[in-house]
Amino acid sequence: MIAIHRKITIALALAGFAGAPPLGTIAAHAGGAALGQAAGQAQRPTSTPYTGDLSVFEYPDRDKKLHVDRVMDLLGIAPGKVVADIGAGSGWFTVRAAARVGAGGQVYAEDINPQAIEYITERASREKLGNVRPVLGAVDDPKLPADSVDAVLIMKTYHEFAHPVALMEKVKVALRPGAKVGIIDRNGNGTDHGVMPEIVEREMAEAGFKRVGKYDFTKSDGQDYFLIFTAN
Hints:
Blueprint: H1 2-13, H2 62-66, H3 68-74, E1 82-86, H4 92-101, E2 106-111, H5 114-126, E3 132-136, E4 149-155, H6 164-174, E5 175-186, H7 197-206, E6 209-215, E7 224-231
Parallel strand pairs: 1-2, 1-4, 2-3, 4-5
Antiparallel strand pairs: 5-7, 6-7
């Protein structure tokens, strides 16, 4: 019953949202509703990860609602680039980024949930996506190669990060010069599958990033936001 309740609650909260948590949310970058205590751990409540059916977010018009092509344009995702999908879940964004970067590029589909990694691995094989590299990360480390990534997208999972600063410090190490990090999330108090943008900006600054862009086109009601950062 608990699992069903969570599925319904989250599905309702995200209904119509183009950037609903990429199934990698299951990935437990989250620490539940507990406040962080250790260095680099979130000093705020975090949401319990969605643990239901991954296919709930694979609806046909999600590309249009999210304006995913514009998202990729703003992040500089182009043929030959290397992209990291942090909290990739089912790989919804992964497969779109893979199509954009082409055979000369690569997409790291990172998640800390082994089931999500297995799902993406099977999906990449089935869809013949030879440029997708599933990566089993850790709560505080995405396990990405150093100096390897041109663009990162964290879609509807940041509010679940239990160790946001530590995690993003490791992401920073993986970035190439000029790389951009995009975060799509929604306004919230941490426990409701959302986090206020000013909190994200504060934590990202602590991890060594500066905001270079802020947009609200990813949902028509203005409750969702898209922030873009570069490393200091």
